[in-house]
Amino acid sequence: MQTGVKPMSHTIADIATEFEIRPGQVYTVLNDLGLDHDGTSFEGDNDTLEMVKESCLENMDSKVITLKPNCTPRDVANALGVPQAEIQKSLISKFKIMKAIANPLTEDEAGRIVTSYGFELALAEGPKPKPKVDPRAAIKVGGAVKRPPVVTIMGHVDHGKTSLLDYIRKANVAAKEAGGITQHIGAYQVMLDEGLITFLDTPGHAAFTNMRARGAQVTDIAILVVAADDGIMPQTQEAIQHIQAANVPMIVAVNKCDKPGANPDRVLQQLTEYNVIPEAYGGQTITANVSALTGEGVPELLELIILQADIMDL
Fold first, then answer.
1. Where are the domains of the chain?
2. What is each CA distance from 52 to 23, 46, 74, 205, 306, in whole angstroms?
3. Which residue from 192, 203, 196, 123 is spatially nearest to 158, judged by alpha carbons?
4. pLDDT tens string for the chain (314 positions)?
5. Does domain 139-312 have CATH number 3.40.50.300?
6. In the chain, N or C: fewer CB atoms in 10 Å?
């Protein structure tokens, strides 16, 4: 290996295309060679690149796709080189598995998808445990302070905005508000292992449209709460307009999935009518099925918020 040469970044998709194999097969080669990668590229000098290519050539007939533990539908799609929407559709229609595109899959779930494409799943060695840190401490990266994301919860009255925040905070907020409706913008910080999230709870009455709009304009991420049984309602439409006008990332929490008559798929279809295209339909909008009553899906929703904040590099 050459010395004194700065490692270059090499794109996995380019190598997969060159040898007419799947990106996940390149993952297998990289894993066997002990080379780390982020799913899209790896670093190495020219000798390393040639070594990878030679190994790919020797293993073109291998049907092993290597993924890291707790891989997501997005990871599987990237490994197989197929659209994310195709994997999402396969999960729901073929395997009856409801998982957001960024939610972790079990080894069995990931294996079933990979096998359906004619490949065998292998799991790479998992990441080393991270040292425990105080989530209240600010994280400094390159001299800059990484602050907690500010998240606004918006949506139609009675769709469970306050109940969802209440579950997250483990405090009975709704009982303290007249009629169960938040009458002011309240700010609450929630402490997770990954750090802090600052939540803004905005009013639900139509008379507070302007206040809701101000809430959207001071936020980093907007959570649009839509009831799975009611679907899109007038105040949902208003909330969508405010979020789009503020040009902030939106995560849709499809709430009340525990109720009889809940139809999350109908909600996703309705969203497309307002230029909100869920990832399940090939768009950019992240969605999560939750229940503020049982807590189902709430941990995954929080994980999506942290992931979005990391992408935004706040």
1. 8-123, 139-312
2. 13, 10, 24, 60, 34
3. 203
4. 444 455 789 999 999 999 999 999 999 999 888 888 988 999 988 888 999 998 899 888 889 999 999 999 999 999 999 988 889 888 888 888 877 788 899 999 999 999 999 999 999 865 444 445 454 444 444 444 467 888 888 888 778 887 888 888 763 333 333 334 343 445 677 877 777 888 876 554 443 344 445 554 567 899 999 999 999 998 899 889 888 888 889 999 999 999 998 999 999 999 999 999 998 888 889 999 999 989 899 988 988 998 888 888 76
5. yes
6. N
Residue 207: both structure tokens together: 């008379």
Token pair in block for residue 193: 């292992």
